[in-house]
Amino acid sequence: MSSHPLFDELKLYVRFDSDDEAALQELRRSFGDETPDIATEFYSRILEHADAAAVLTGGEPQLDRLKQSLQDWLTDCLSGPWDADYFERHARIGRRHVEVGLPQHFMFVAMALVRHQLADAARRSVASQAQQQARLTAVNKLLDLELAIMLHTYREDYTTQVKEHERRTLITQLLPAVARELHNPLTVVDSSAYLLQERLADAPASTKEHLAKIRAHAQRASRIAEGMLELARERLPMLRPHGLYGILEGVIRDTDTADVDVELRCPTPHPTVDIDPQYAEQILGHLLRNAVQATPGGRVVIDVVMKDSLASVTVSDDGPGVSEVILSRLFAPLATDKSGGAGLGLALSRALAQAQGGSLDHVDGTLPGASFRWHVGPTR
User: Fold this and answer.
1) What is the pTM of this model?
2) How distant, in Å, are the alpha carbons of 42, 100, 343, 346 from that of 332?
3) In this structure, are 201 and 257 located in the same domain?
4) How many domains does the chain have?
């Protein structure tokens, strides 16, 4: 059995030993397959809380996947082995909770519910009080370990957020100066290459090709500089009631969707939200352009969902999805897997979403390609 230093230390702290492992495995064998009932009860309780339910916006398919994941987690908890691989599997579950934005305090509430359900199963599984107590003790130690693992993942996330804040502070200080210094020389390069193109109309094809490359790269660099200025700009959003449907219709109309089938699904009456319309158009315009470019001749679906006075907009496509290479830094400035892309659109869109009290995340969507969900601000 492979070991993990942190997990070994945690097990030593709660005194989780081989007797507890045996008691858990006996419980797993004796209490039958009650995991579907536990999962159903668990999520029925979770959905009673608006803050927790707000992160579960994928409908019944997402709920079914989450219930199955909980069943698998319970089975794994009771089956072991409780080694380094176990720790890594369960740490990934904790990180997923962080990614979807589940508030940390719900970890304690959720674990208390699971603790109660497993304790009932332990009491029902055997008549002997001594065996019941052994299984209850093992369950409590196990769930203490699970809480420690999940808190560890939240601490990791906090450390990441601190580093991200420091990085953004540096970017905010440096970007405007760098971008301004770059913009004018790049404009000169582009205009000079254009004049050469005009004057060398009869030049060999290879010369024209090199001039075209100069202009293309100068324009791309200029777009990066402009994006850097926009990213560093700290204009406060002007929030006012605005209809999401009207903004989306305008964005679709103004976007070159070519031969892509774009479907807009919005509830009626159409939701009105407190947003900055200019920010909203930038966010939605970038998400739609990305989706259209990712799936030429394919399909894009835009879902507007209202849930417990919260609104969200999800843009999904049936393209190849996000490359694993950049998935971990998807929203970092200059991260892109598009040829000729500046890599600032998603970073800027997330900043604009957060400035309005919302969020922008990469999520599982209704189509097999990439999906991005904008959680909008308070609704009216």
Assistant:
1) 0.46
2) 35, 18, 8, 8
3) no
4) 3
